[in-house]
């Protein structure tokens, strides 16, 4: 089996050194039988990430002047992709040798599979398995994740089952909703004009994609034959915590609005308010102020900052979402044909809700 062609889609936002390590890992990960192209989108980075991508061999770069979010940037790259397989890859992932080739072979040998993820190894503690494999979320599991309800027996067990904490990943298996930090997808199962729903710019977009695939009879898998190292939250850690929390909660509200009956949304909202009031009465730290929480529970998302936390003043939380009209300029590398010997670019996706309990896998 030779010349399985993969389009690597990378979204970058102020993660230059992680991007460098990710790109450097691609060549060995593709051996021995995968050719690939790298399509990178930089969301207005200020740390030199775009300049790194622009000069990296074999990378095709699209530069946005503003932070348009992960979902929009992925879709921009996808429209330029030519591979039969499409890899969503986060900049905070380093692939082990042969990992990309193993994932591509897996899909080639299983025509019924829509996508596959590798084993994710965490840096804390080193070499431990990252819980990036999940069943579809419910109001109960997300209340357990976001609130103190997670300490109660009626919530703790469902959360562990949702995160598949006690499951065995020593053999290939189907997973409902894996995190998209390193997700290889079969292009023929995707829409022709987008991968992710841009109404979910940072969080829950991969879960909605997985649900859409499942509703059409497709499956997503994990294979232990491919291994990557992952430092979750490379870009989203650069967000103001309030902005990050509003996007996490507001995105799940939007997900419920798109997929579940109104009863589920009412239960989730009620649980979030009970937790907020209990924290207020007892003097414990709250994730959000009242107005910000109310906005998130209506599904309202604050604008994404163009600069990371500490670099400049972020937009006011609670303001309307920005219009998607930022001018885009395309910068392509001299190379026009992907090859097995070229390195890629990287990106950071809206780093799907990172494992919490309080914070799981942003821009």
UniProtKB/TrEMBL annotation:
Residues 328-345 have a biased composition (Polar residues). The keyword Metal-binding does not apply. SUPFAM superfamilies: Nucleotide-diphospho-sugar transferases (SSF53448). Pfam families: Glycos_transf_2. Residues 7-132 form the Glycosyltransferase 2-like domain. GO terms for molecular function: transferase activity. It comes from Thermasporomyces composti. Residues 300-363 are annotated as: Disordered. This is GT2 family glycosyltransferase. Keywords: Transferase. Residues 348-363 have a biased composition (Basic and acidic residues).
